[in-house]
Structures are given as structure tokens and as C-alpha cells.
Amino acid sequence: MPEGGGAAEIRLRPPRNTLNERVVSWWRVQWLLMTAVPVVPLAVLGALIEPARFWLLLPAAVLAAAGGGVAVLLPLWWFRTHRWEVTEDAVYVRTGFFWQEWRIAPMSRIQTVDTVRGPLEQLHRLATVTVTTASSKGAVRIEGLDHEVAAELAERLTRITRATPGDAT
User: Where is the YdbS-like PH domain (predicted)?
Assistant: First the structure.
């Protein structure tokens, strides 16, 4: 029982909402682009420098295969584990696959709500909602939302936090 005797108990349970299924494609594109950063220069140098061709193309091939495998498998796994939910009391987010992280931002602690759409997110019609609190862990981010859902969520959070009195502790 919490100190003070009268505070409501918050029970940790998995958040109910999944991300938009287009997030899998967005994550794959991000991985493939990150993989291309070392692979392309190695492949180009391997094509141009004959004495070092094997030693440049071998790591390029290994990195390309590893990056391709990661791009195929991990986004599916992430999609199964990432969850979010907003109640009248808090924003709940669960992320991670090996090390899962659960973040809860009480409405009374929310300072700002931002919606961001980078170029790849726009291409996939996705957005990220960032909920900033005074927490030392930083903002709570909900990535991979449909851009319309993200806009509605930001509006809803703004309405709820405006109506929620600040925490006096």
C-alpha cells in the first residue's frame, strides 16, 4: 500500500494498442539505409582497387547479408513487442525486444506533446508522438503511428493534460 494510505494503486499491465503495420516497412527501410552506409563504399572501393578487392568485397557481402537478415526479421519482432496506450491517468509505452522497457507518464507530469514526421515516416504515412515530462529518463515516444492517429492522439493528450491538475509533490 502506498504511503499516505489513500493514493490509488496503479497496476502495470501490457498496453493495449499496437503500432500501425506500416511501421514494419519503415523500420526495414531504416535498417537497409544503415546497412548501405558501410556496404556501398566497401563495394565501390572493392570494384576500383583490384589488389584489395577480396578484402573489401568480403566484408561488404557479410555486412549486406547481416543487414538484410536483420531488416527482414527484427522489424517483425519489434512489431509484436511494441505497445502503447493512453488512459485518463497516464501514457503507457512498452518497447524493446531483448530488454523491454515500460514507461508510464502520468498526465499530471506531462509538459509538452509533440508530433514529428520525418521524410521516411511521411513516405509511410506514419508519425511519432513525443510526450515530454520532467523525468530524468527523457521523453516517452510512441513511434509508428498512422499520421492521423498521431494527430488525434496529440489533440487528446493536450485536452486531457489541460484538464488535469498538476502534481503537488
Answer: 80-156
pLDDT in tens, 130-162: 999 888 788 999 999 999 999 999 999 988 888
Q: What is the number of helices (H) and of strands (E) in the chain?
A: 4, 6
CB 100 within 8 A of CB 81: yes
- Give the residue from 72, 74, 77, 71 showing the smallest Cα distance to 32: 71
Q: How many CB atoms lie within 10 A of CB 48?
A: 10
Using the structure block, give the residue that is written with the C-alpha cell 522497457.
101
Q: Return the C-alpha cell found at 103.
A: 514507461
Helix or strand (DSSP H, E) at 100: none
Sheet-wide strand order for 83-86: 83-86, 90-95, 101-106
